[in-house]
Amino acid sequence: MCFFRRKNNYLCAQNTEIMSKLHSFFDFLSRHKCWFVVIFFTVMTVFIDSNCILERRYVWASINALKKEISTLDASYQENTRKLNELRNNPRSVVRVAREKYYMTRPGEDLFIIETDGNLSNGLVVTGESEGDDPEV
What we know:
Blueprint: H1 10-31, H2 33-48, H3 53-89, H4 91-102, E1 109-112, E2 115-116, E3 119-120, E4 125-128
Antiparallel strand pairs: 1-4, 2-3
Helix pairs in contact: 3-4
């Protein structure tokens, strides 16, 4: 049945060709519908879905980076806890920190700061007379 009979049956021939191609396409779909469902589901889960495998890869990478940062911060926390306990329990460590970090001296001492290549060295030279081994600064 052709609706366009006015133009030399050309459109009717095209219409039947298109219909036969569509019919063969739908016939192919009906025979292999299981495979199309599997392919569609695979494409959805791998590429299109918000919880797709590609997105999970980025999330796993960020989780691993955060785990490394946690382990680094945990090691830093342990080191700082050890230093804090040393400062709380050992009065000589308080004196050492006061001399090295804040450049404090006892009365009557001279302090010479040795600078090498623009960096301050850890070794400070303190001269003068000290009044004993008391931990007071």
